[in-house]
Amino acid sequence: MPVVSRVASAQTYPVRPITMLVPYPAGGGIDALGRVLSEHLSRSLGQPIVIEDVGGAGGTIAMSRLARAAPDGYVLGIGTVDQVVNGAIYQLTYDVVSSFEPIAMLANSPYLIVSKSALPATNLKELIAWLRTNGGKIAQGHNGVGGGQHLCGINLQRAIGVQWPFVPYRGAAPELQDLVAGQIDLLCPLAGSALSLARSGKIRPYAVTAGTRMMSAPEIPTVDEGGLPGLYVSAWAGLLASKGTPRDVLAKLNSAVRTALDDSPTRQRIADLGFDVPAAEQQTPESLGALQKVERDKWWPIIKAAGIKAE
Fold first, then answer.
1. Fold equal for 3-108+236-305 and 112-226
2. Per-residue confidence in pLDDT tens, the chain, 311 aa
3. What residues does each domain of the chain span?
4. Candidate CATH numbers 3.40.50.150, 3.30.1370.100, 3.40.50.300, 3.40.190.10; the one for domain 112-226
5. What is the CATH number of domain 3-108+236-305?
6. Long-range contacts: 128-135, Cβ < 8 Å, 24+?
7. Which residue in 176, 164, 302, 148 sits closest to 234, CA to CA?
């Protein structure tokens, strides 16, 4: 793009609606997060933010579309740890880090380690002992190969030295229904989708996969407290643009995101979804870009060593 054109686009941006790609089906936590933020961003930017749910293939369909989009800031995407991990699982036409411009971290949440209510273990140390004794009889659900739930389960197996089979599901609702019914034994769901079931006694929570307790669930211990120190898996979400988007446009989008995350009603709605709002220093493009690389370097060797392939 010629320099004059790029500068003009940055000065006037946005002049038409913006599309925000969500790499999951409608109705999930990331979709809900996108919709909450889009309301505030629309007001800040003066243009509608149109949410487009593009699920399938572990989110690679949405990310591929974002990578091919014109670098003008009118197609954005929500990226997560799942999309970074995809590079170790799928043959992609884009690079999971360098094909995108990081804008800002939006939210993050650890996963919960939970079981069916009939399982005899009452805390994480008892669960570890039970898993070591019953490894061949266990079934753990997840909602996508290489996704955060799957990574949580792989990490758990590696930490205690036992393997068991995974049962894939198409979403959080059916896997939680089967856990409540006792059809599977274990799950690592997001807090937002499982807390009500845990608090009602329909499933049993053991720990959050983080080093600090969640603000929205302070009663649940961390993995460090429970006996599996460092078993961290985070369901972070960040806003991305296609590579080459003008710096001024990225700066304007980052400012709009920061304003949204500083808005008390918006923060509360995000908390109600089971997510934490990142600290101010984590809301920079540089912080999100660094996180993408850290997650890639952490998970790719684990995925490859486990022999995980696309279904």
1. yes
2. 444 444 445 578 999 999 999 998 887 788 999 999 999 999 999 999 999 999 888 889 999 999 999 999 999 999 999 889 989 999 999 999 999 999 999 999 899 999 999 999 999 999 999 999 998 899 999 988 888 899 999 999 999 999 999 998 877 889 999 999 999 999 999 888 898 999 999 999 999 999 999 887 899 999 999 999 999 998 899 999 999 999 999 999 999 999 999 999 999 999 888 898 999 999 999 999 999 999 999 999 999 988 888 76
3. 3-108+236-305, 112-226
4. 3.40.190.10
5. 3.40.190.150
6. 128/160, 128/227, 128/228, 131/156, 131/160, 131/162, 131/164, 132/160, 132/161, 132/162, 135/162, 135/163, 135/164
7. 148
Q: Which residue has the tokens 């989110």?
A: 59
Q: Which two tokens stand for residue 106?
A: 């939006």
